[in-house]
Specification:
Elements lengths: L29 H14 L3 E3 L9 E6 L13 E13 L4 E8 L2 E11 L1 E7 L5 E7 H13 L15 E3 L4 H10 L5 H9 L5
Antiparallel strand pairs: 1-2, 2-3, 3-6, 4-5, 5-8, 6-7
Length: 199
């Protein structure tokens, strides 16, 4: 296994619609999947889409560790999950805004409207069709990673660019903590703790 290079915003592959993986290619992507896991472990991140590592295929690898679940998230730790050719169906018409970061846009964060409850379908490496519901920040993560498969980066989803900023000055996250602390990904609560003006 090896740590892969993650391409940054501006690279043309991040604007492409990724290609579906055919059943005959499932065995050949197992090495890629293991390298994607290794890369996430090395960085300490939650999710990665194949286009971010220069592979134009509809593959997402993610996990949600216990330390990334908001207090009112109402879901448990999510183990390593490989989604091949995923599709998403919203279960609610309205969206909620979630704070997000992206490995392809280092040093920045933004508040992004996402469906808070979704039905996701995908194939695993054993060619089995998986269907399940996801909600809260788990649903937001899946939508974020699947956007990469359609050439969409999270700033393109934002409706208020005043909520787009650098990680070392998370002023709006600090304000949001006052009202919504129990629903914010703990990653962003840690940002506020590290922010010099909050010490």
């Amino acid at each position: 296994m090896k740590v892969l290079n993650i391409v940054k915003m501006g690279h043309p592959i991040l604007r492409k619609k990724a290609l579906k993986v055919s059943f005959k290619d499932f065995d050949s992507i197992k090495g890629l999947v293991e390298n994607m896991k290794k890369t996430l472990e090395h960085i300490g991140a939650s999710g990665l889409a194949a286009p971010q590592v220069l592979v134009n295929k509809r593959i997402v690898v993610y996990r949600v560790n216990s330390n990334r679940i908001p207090k009112n998230g109402k879901f448990k730790k999510i183990p390593w999950t490989v989604m091949i050719n995923p599709t998403i169906k919203p279960l609610l018409k309205t969206k909620k805004e979630y704070w997000e970061r992206c490995l392809s846009i280092p040093g920045l964060h933004g508040k992004v409207p996402r469906y808070s409850s979704i039905l996701v379908k995908y194939y695993n490496l054993d060619k089995k069709l998986i269907k399940h519901k996801a909600h809260s920040t788990w649903a937001a993560l899946i939508q974020h990673e699947c956007d990469h498969l359609d050439g969409i980066l999270y700033p393109m989803r934002m409706i208020d660019l005043s909520k787009f900023g650098f990680n070392d000055t998370p002023g709006d996250v600090a304000k949001d903590m006052i009202k919504n602390k129990s629903s914010i990904d703990p990653l962003f609560l840690d940002l506020v703790k590290k922010w010099p003006q909050n010490k």
